[in-house]
C-alpha cells in the first residue's frame, strides 16, 4: 500500500501504535490498539482515538478537524499491515464512534478502494448481515482482512 | 485551494518504528469500553460464513 501516511510507532508487542496528526489544529496524538475479540473466526478489534497531551486520556468523541482524515486512515491501515505481519491475516473489526464518523471512514475508504482492495478484503455489516464493501453504501461496521 | 506539503507525511509503503515510549493501553478505560462495544456489535452480526469449515 502506497498511500501517504504519517510515521507511526509501536511497542514491541505490535498491538499498540501511536502517531501524530498534523494540521490547522496542531499536532494531535493518535493511539491505535488491536484486541482479540473471539476465536473461530478469529477476530481482533481495531480501536483508535486521540490522546489528550495533558491528561493522557484517550477519547474518540473529539473532532480533531485537522483536514487530514485520509492520511490518518492510511496510517491506521498501515498499522493493520504491521499487526498482520506479527499475528497473521485475521479479520479485524472496525466501527466509528458515531454513525457520522463511520460514514466518514467509508467515504475515505471508497476514495481509495481500488488501492486498498489490492491488499485487503473489506466486508461491511448492515443489519447484521455481511456484504462485500461497495461504494455509496452505508454500513454499521467493517471487517477487514489482509489477503 | 493550494495543497500544503507536510514534511511528516511519508509516501510509499509503511513500517512501524519500535519505540519504548509507546505505552500499553490494554487497561485504558477508553479501550476497555470500545472493546466491550465491539463485542456487543459483533454478537449481532451473522459470522457463520466466515467460520472454518
Largest sheet of chain A: 9 strands, mixed
Q: Could you tell me the strand content of chain A as a percent range?
A: 35-45%
Radius of gyration of chain A: 15 Å
Based on CA inertia axes, which overall geometry of chain B fits?
A: extended
Mean pLDDT of chain A, as a whole number?
93
Order of helices and strands of chain B: EEH
The percentage of residues in β strands of chain B lies in 5-15%
With helices defined by DSSP (H or I, 4 residues minimum), what is the helix count of chain B? 1
Shape of chain A: globular
Q: How far apart lie the N and C ends of chain B?
A: 53 Å
The computed structural class of chain A is alpha+beta
Radius of gyration of chain B: 19 Å
Helix content of chain A: 25-40%
Whole-number average pLDDT of chain B? 85
Number of helical segments of chain A?
A: 3
Distance between the termini of chain A: 12 Å
Question: What is the makeup of the main sheet of chain B?
Answer: none
Helix content range of chain B: 25-40%
Task: Walk me through this protein's architecture.
The complex is a heterodimer of chains A (147) and B (53). Chain A has 147 residues and is of the alpha+beta class. Chain A has one domain (8-146). Helix content of chain A is 27%, strand content 39%. Chain A has helices at residues 69-87, 99-111, 113-119; strands at residues 5-6, 8-10, 16-23, 26-38, 43-51, 58-59, 91-94, 120-126, 129-132, 141-146. In chain A, strands 2, 3, 4, 5, 6, 7, 8, 9 and 10 form a nine-stranded mixed β-sheet that branches. In chain A, β2 (8-10) and β3 (16-23) form a beta hairpin. The longest helix of chain A has 19 residues, at 69-87. The relative contact order of chain A is 0.17. The mean pLDDT of chain A is 93. Chain B has 53 residues and is an alpha+beta fold. Chain B is built from one helix and two strands, in the order ββα. Chain B has one helix spanning 29-43, and strands spanning 9-10, 17-18. The radius of gyration of chain B is 19 Å and the shape is extended. The interface between A and B is large, with 51 and 37 residues.
Amino acid at each position: 500500500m502506497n498511500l501517504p501516511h504519517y510515521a507511526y510507532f509501536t511497542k514491541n508487542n505490535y498491538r499498540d501504535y501511536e502517531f501524530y496528526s498534523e494540521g490547522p489544529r496542531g499536532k494531535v496524538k493518535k493511539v491505535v490498539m488491536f484486541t482479540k475479540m473471539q476465536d473461530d473466526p478469529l477476530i481482533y478489534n481495531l480501536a483508535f482515538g486521540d490522546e489528550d497531551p495533558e491528561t493522557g486520556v484517550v477519547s474518540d468523541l473529539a473532532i480533531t478537524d485537522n483536514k487530514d482524515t485520509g492520511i490518518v486512515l492510511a496510517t491506521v491501515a498501515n498499522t493493520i499491515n504491521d499487526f498482520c505481519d506479527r499475528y497473521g491475516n485475521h479479520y479485524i473489526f472496525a466501527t466509528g464512534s458515531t454513525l457520522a464518523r463511520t460514514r466518514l471512514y467509508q467515504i475515505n475508504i471508497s476514495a481509495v478502494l481500488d488501492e486498498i482492495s489490492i491488499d485487503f478484503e473489506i466486508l461491511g455489516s448492515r443489519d447484521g448481515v455481511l456484504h462485500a464493501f461497495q461504494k455509496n453504501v452505508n454500513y454499521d461496521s467493517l471487517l477487514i482482512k489482509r489477503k | 485551494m493550494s495543497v500544503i506539503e507536510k514534511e511528516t507525511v511519508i509516501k510509499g509503503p509503511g513500517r512501524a518504528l519500535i519505540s519504548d515510549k509507546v505505552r500499553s493501553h490494554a487497561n485504558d478505560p477508553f479501550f476497555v469500553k470500545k472493546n466491550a462495544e465491539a463485542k456487543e456489535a459483533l454478537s449481532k452480526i451473522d459470522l457463520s460464513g466466515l467460520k472454518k469449515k
